[in-house]
Amino acid sequence: MHRYQRLFPSPGEVTAADALATLRARERAPDGRPLVLADMVTSLDGRAAVQGRSRPLGTGADTEMLVELRTLADAVLVGPSTIGAEGYGDLAAREERRARRSAAGLAERPLTVLITRSGRIPWEAGLFAAAEQPIVIYSGTELAPPDVAAPVTVHRLDAPTPTAMLAHLRAEHGVRVLLCEGGPSLLHALLREGLVDELFVTLTPVVVGDDLQPRIVSGGPLDLELELRWVLRAGGELFLRYG
Ligand SMILES: NC(=O)c1ccc[n+]([C@@H]2O[C@H](COP(=O)([O-])OP(=O)(O)OC[C@H]3O[C@@H](n4cnc5c(N)ncnc54)[C@H](OP(=O)(O)O)[C@@H]3O)[C@@H](O)[C@H]2O)c1
User: Fold this and answer.
1) For a surface tag, which of 61, 86, 109, 236 has the fewest beta carbons within 10 Å of its beta carbon?
2) How far is it, in rounded angstroms, from Cα 202 to Cα 41?
3) Residue of the CA atom closest to atom 35 of ligand 1
């Protein structure tokens, strides 16, 4: 378990679980949609991937923060392109995580949620081979899932916007806390619709230097100013939380 030095607002040492418990995420779920947390990692030069994948960017402390955020969430939202690019599978493969979720009154595994306007889903991705991992897809087109191991539910929405999806997740799936793990296009859509309550950004001391790699938000101008809520440090990484 990593120890994180809190630099702001007050100095101290915390674990990821203890720091995140102070969010009181479940209690803060607004009416009509889940509380939305988002977590991204960025290089020093503002890149969100190395050769199309984010995994080379974060260290163990970053992974631990992400896993602890997942442990709070009823659902994890991921963009279809990210599902295709990264090695997604069972979101609570470890027994200890499932036990902690159960003890907290949550389902053993968070729902994985995808949203697509076009219906293009990377069915060959490892996520769909995880037989225990429930998946919900919001689609703007008729979608017939192929024969995959994971249990997949498709909801057709005439206007598959993040706002409509979140309202449905709260009303029909009882989702109170949702974690968005990107990618940059999906995060842009959530920010544009004013749906991100807490943004966690890991600044990792890596310089990518590749203009072709995405940034953590992508999709056109947004005029947003966020509030800094904490700064944690583990090794050379800074963990920033904004609201
Ligand atoms: N650094 C990090 O923390 C991090 C995290 C995640 C991903 N990444 C990296 O980001 C890259 C992938 O990101 P990405 O931006 O290409 O894809 P993405 O955000 O993962 O997925 C984009 C897809 O989301 C769907 N979508 C549904 N509703 C949308 C809406 N309202 N607006 C925009 N998209 C919507 C679109 O599918 P339809 O066209 O079918 O609607 C779109 O193609 C990969 O390189 C990955 O490694 C980095």
Assistant:
1) 236
2) 5
3) 186
